[in-house]
Amino acid sequence: MIWSLVRSVGAVLVGLVVAMVLIVGLEALSSIVHPFPPDVDPTDIEVCKAHVVRYPAWFLVVAIFAWGLTTFLCAWLATRLGLRRHRAHGLVVGTILFALAVMNMSMLPYPIWFWAGNLIVFPLGFYCGATLGGPRPSAADGSGI
After folding, report:
1. Could you tell me which residues come within 8 angstroms of residue 97 by beta carbon, excluding any fewer than 6 positions away?
2. What is the reported pTM?
3. Cα(103)–Cα(138) distance, rounded to whole angstroms?
4. How far apart are CA 40 and CA 47, in angstroms?
5. Phi, psi (5° rounding) for residue 55?
6. Could you report the per-residue pLDDT of 51-68, keeping only the tens digit for each?
């Protein structure tokens, strides 16, 4: 029983750690493609807001797909690693990532279409990741046709 819990929590934690690594990588790429101006403090929230306003639209479109792909991959991974490949592991990871994305978007002045894109892509990504990572239907139960 305890090992089941350890495996489930571990699967969720691995999914979140991989998400963190991928998001840090995306942010590093972001700082190369759209760097902060020289001589500004990137820890100042007002500077960050002004920086986000200047993001090119193409970059935000790429960000929507990159965040969605990250959510998909991490939900899939957590589901695959979880006990009996239960979809709940991926759904938990996806829900946490979705909540963090909403928190991020609410603090910065992203355009409404960016919000809309993420409100579609995140749930779709973690639902598909959890579903595809879940158990395969078997021919014995009649659902494997």
Report:
1. 16, 19, 70, 71, 74, 122, 126
2. 0.87
3. 40
4. 7
5. -60, 135
6. 999 999 999 999 999 999
